[in-house]
Each structure stands twice: as structure tokens, then as C-alpha cells.
């Protein structure tokens, strides 16, 4: 298969290099188009006020294109300009840090996969529940085997498959579970500090309150050591509220 591989941690990230090696080892043709620098939590943002520049990266056992832009920039530019032919699938990751529940809204990893899905390509986002992975080769091999096994044609259009691996060796990892995302949201906090000149600044912290995490949701199962898989659909229409708004007779205000 022809694979487009991207991420939001940057083209030098451990997770991207691991899954590149695994996909290549499995016999796939892999084209890497990924950000030159860390782009975590940029969501679905685009670069519109400056040009996009691309740098070719060639190393022993790896080659790819680094884009001075966001993950969504990478996918758009790859699909429209950089790839010699359309890919069979787009994979984003492996991200350092989970993308479950409310993380999905902010994630550049998920956004890159979403952009691919909206362009009509099978798309999978892959993340790891740890922020300093040293070696993700086992998780990468599992993901590389998992992606082609999915019956993509049975899934609805623009579906993104969101996969998360627990922060533990694969030998101790519990089986994959298909599950919804948790409805719990972040409880934000900011660590207030002083710079060397005495001026205040703030650093975002916070947690997803464990007591608010739905049982059998992505966050709950990932914490128990399961690989989680959640199908995502980015139709933001609140269909339950359509009838309620229609009953308000708002057209009479014209």
C-alpha cells in the first residue's frame, strides 16, 4: 500500500520514526510529510499569512519532507502538490501523549487525520499514553499491522479511526477495545510564575478529573492498559437541538 505518514510532534519525533520503520518493514511505500517542528495542540489550524517552505530530510534508513507549517498544512500540501500519486491511506502519529476525550478537539495529530478523511482518504490517528517515549517500535508494528486490516469500505465517509496505546510494554498491554470517547472535559489550571525580571507568566496545566470519566470510554480503558479504538465523525451539527430551535419560531423575528 501507498502510505502518507504525518504527525504533530515533528519529523524527528520518536513515534513517527518508529511507525515509518514498521510500515516500511511491512512492505508499504511510505511518503512522509510532517512538520519541521513541534506542533502539538494546534488543532486544525492552517498557515495563511506566510508561505509554506519544505525541507527534504535524508538520513540512513529514513527520508521525508519537513514542512514549516501545521499538521493540516502538511496533509493539504502533500495531497495537492507533493505526492507523486494519491495514497491508499493516511496515518498520523505515533503521537507522544494520548488523544482521548477532550484532547481530540485540540490535537494536531487527529486534525491531520481528519483533513485526510475529509479529502476522501482512509485515515488513522495513532497516539501513546506517555509524553517521553524512548522506543515505540512494538506499538508501531502493531499499528502497521492493524491499519490495513480495517474494512475501510464498510465505514462511513470521512470517518477517522483514533487509536491510543497505553504507557506500558506491548507484552503487558491488554487487548484492543472499540469504545466511545469520554464526555469528561479538562479541569484547567495555570501555574503562575515569575520570569528573571520579576514579570508574571502562566503555564497551562490541569487534569481530566478521573471521577468524571465514563466507564468503558477511551480514557477509562486506556488507563486500565487497553489499546483503544474510537471512530470519529466531524459533523458538528447538534441534531437533537434542531427540532428544539425550530419550535422557537425564530423566523418570526425577521
Distance between the termini: 55 Å
Low-confidence stretches: none
CATH architecture tag:
3-Layer(aba) Sandwich
Strand residues, percent = 25-35%
Overall mean confidence score, pLDDT: 96
Question: What are the main properties of this structure?
Answer:
254 residues; alpha/beta; Stationary-phase Survival Protein Sure Homolog, Chain: A; two-stranded antiparallel ribbon; 7 helices; 11 strands; 26% helix; 29% strand; globular
Quick gist of this model?
With 254 residues, the protein is an alpha/beta fold.
Account of the 3D structure:
The chain is α/β, with parallel strands linked by helices. The protein has one domain (2-183, 212-237): Stationary-phase Survival Protein Sure Homolog, Chain: A. It contains 7 helices and 11 strands. It has helices at residues 14-25, 71-82, 103-106, 108-118, 137-149, 218-223, 239-247, and strands at residues 2-6, 29-35, 54-59, 62-67, 89-96, 123-128, 159-165, 174-178, 187-194, 200-207, 226-233. The strands form 2 sheets. It has a 9-stranded mixed sheet, sandwiched between helices. It has a two-stranded antiparallel ribbon with strand order 9-10. A hairpin with a 2-residue loop joins strand 3 and strand 4. The N and C termini lie far apart (55 Å). The model has no long low-confidence stretch (mean pLDDT 96).
Q: Which secondary structure elements does this structure contain, and how are they paired or packed?
A:
Layout: E1 2-6, H1 14-25, E2 29-35, E3 54-59, E4 62-67, H2 71-82, E5 89-96, H3 103-106, H4 108-118, E6 123-128, H5 137-149, E7 159-165, E8 174-178, E9 187-194, E10 200-207, H6 218-223, E11 226-233, H7 239-247
Parallel strand pairs: 1-2, 1-5, 2-4, 5-6, 6-7, 8-11
Antiparallel strand pairs: 3-4, 7-11, 9-10
Helix pairs in contact: 1-5, 2-4
